[in-house]
Amino acid sequence: MSGQVSVNSDNATTVLLVGVGGQGTILAADVLAKTAIANGLQVKLSEIHGMAQRGGSVSTIVRLGKRVNSMVCDLGSADYLLSFETTEALRNISYLREGGMLLVNDEAIKSQPVLTGRAHMPAHARERLVAYGAHLVPATELAVKAGSPKCANVVLLGALAAGMSFPLESWEEQIRLKVPPKTIDMNITAFRSGVASVPHGQR
Amino acid sequence: MQLLSGNEAIAQGAWEAGANIGVGYPGTPSTETLENFAKKDGVYAEWCPNEKVAVEVGVGASAAGARVLATMKHVGVNVAADPLFTVAYTGVNGGLVVLAADDPGMHSSQNEQDTRFYALAAHIPLLEPSDSAEALAFTKAAFELSERFDMPFFIRSTVRVSHAKSPVEVGERTEHEVDPAAYQKDPGKWVMMPAFAKPRRLSLNEREAAISAWVDTCPFNRIEPGSKEIGIVCSGAAYQYVRDAMPEASILKIGLSWPLPQGLLRTFADSVDAVYVVDEASNYLSLNVKAAGIPVASFPHPLPAAGELSPRAIAVAFGKEVPASLEAPSDLPGRPPALCPGCPHRTVFKELARAKCIVTGDIGCYTLGALPPLSGMDTTIDMGASVSMAHGFELAWKGKKHRPVVGIIGDSTFAHSGFSSLLDIAYNKGVATICVLDNRTTAMTGHQGNPFNGITLQNRPSREMDIATMVRAIGIEDVVEVDPNDVAATRAAIKHATQNTDDVSVIVFRSPCVLLKGSFTPQAPYYVNADCTACGVCVSIGCPALARDEATGQAIIDPDMCVGCGQCAQYCAFDAIEQLPGGAR
Question: So what's the ipTM on this one?
Fold first, then answer.
């Protein structure tokens, strides 16, 4: 990111995870933060609780580096935007920095105004995201193959891991510590399928 | 090294300081603090009905020699303000530390008030951490400082401190022993009647002078020298943003925000060409820096006066170049939070709308009933106001033809302050209809216990209060209990209560929150059959599992989201919504 204008003099890496309440963004953010700490970095993780949890838009920010000041993500400042849903990816697109990595779960979830016929889903969301340079991850499909649609968040974490420099074993160690013991094998399979979903040399 | 949120760090700091007792009322972003404290060894913790009670319990324990942590959100400080203003006079015996968690940006609150003004007004010293490590260190120190200066202490966090995690070094606990034999009666300190309060006011001035003399050496305020051109005074999360956006500037980082370090402020002002103040959703710091006689420079571009700050906002204020960003699309549907599938509150809002009621609302999950398609609320102000405001509406329109007025309040909120409002209606012979949505928990903040479900913070034996019995005990005769999942019964109860215009009526809608562990078992999902006429009535109840087909207008039920509550089927006049076989799942 050298040469680019930044408002973060700490030069930390900013990962913005967005989605819909209940999709597991917080677990994914937690694994990312602990992986960074295990690799000797400082970390700040910021999340919003409360009203936002009842099926509304949610976002979690993880910033990691040798030194980390802020715990928020500004417009044009996310090095990685990991979206668990296509509409939320579009909603947060202005946070992505120029040249940042855009990873999106290839799934659209209708919001309450859409369900009740008061609003419409955005037209051509996938095509627009691809035009922004998105890598679309079939996370639910890969999660079902791994054993449960519930581990779609770990598939997406795998896609993020493919674009970051931490050793994959380091991620897997944190996943093992975080998920229920009975689901470890399933989650590791899900993670690896997420890693494999990102074409080599994507970043 | 542990990755802790600010709230977890405050709980850890209190525990390390030997805090014996924790009290509070849940409220975002403060809630997890007391929950974490309660899980630690050697402590007692309880949820109280409201913040005033919590602080008073804490003051009693402090007078008896215990170290006490009291936790609440910023608006809870309003409720607790009565004892707090006077405890500044009495001072403490055991250290008394009050966490006030502010919510700039109003992620989950009705206003963005700044607790630091309470510190100033009540003469209560206030520490303001900017990350989890400081949250632990400041809280731990606050207990010792509280005892040293004989003053209660505030810890003020904001959502970006309380709910941000960062690595923290944790330590061991130093036990604080409480000895009943050490208690000495001291009415001059503790009985705040005028004869004793007048000299105690002078004592407060002396204690304030003592801490004011100390603050210039307080290790929690510090100058970070940088360029001479720009000096910035800041605190809390905003300090982190300033460090990011203005690495070249000199910074006076304030950790103790009341009383401010007058000497350090002057030293700082003398060391730089211009003093700027960066403050979030408030002018507390700039007002008080000016009051210290220090000219405050204007930003080239004004800082936002409301909402959260960020490094970008500060960079813009100083006229710096900021990163380019893609334009946000304008064609996106909103994604507001909604009542959950199966939520027992839903039918009540639908029926109140059908009966064309004016609804005075309250604070909790059910505030979401204000959003479309239910759009079922006329007012929301503060905890308990639903009941008192319904009475106010009725008084204003007394003797005039008007639509039914209904106050709607949750079980925990009713215990918090709704009951005293109902006492007012009973006492003054008011005529409003009050609906208590008793979902057996304090749902919005994450399912805390309250007096009406008899579940306590540390799972100690309790009593389970009965709302209808309490309401009858104050002389209100028209009280019914209704299962809100029964639409016909809900409709009939609302009709009866709103037609009773001679007296107050109370309906207790009792059904557990579907997210409450052990209280609700999802049933086989419902589906829409070929008889659907696309009338749209079922969709109008606003269940996230229900949608309209964009082409045909017919209803569709998402079988993965449907919990089988059957509310929608009761609204279908064409028997077009049926349950799949399979029973509980």
Answer: 0.95
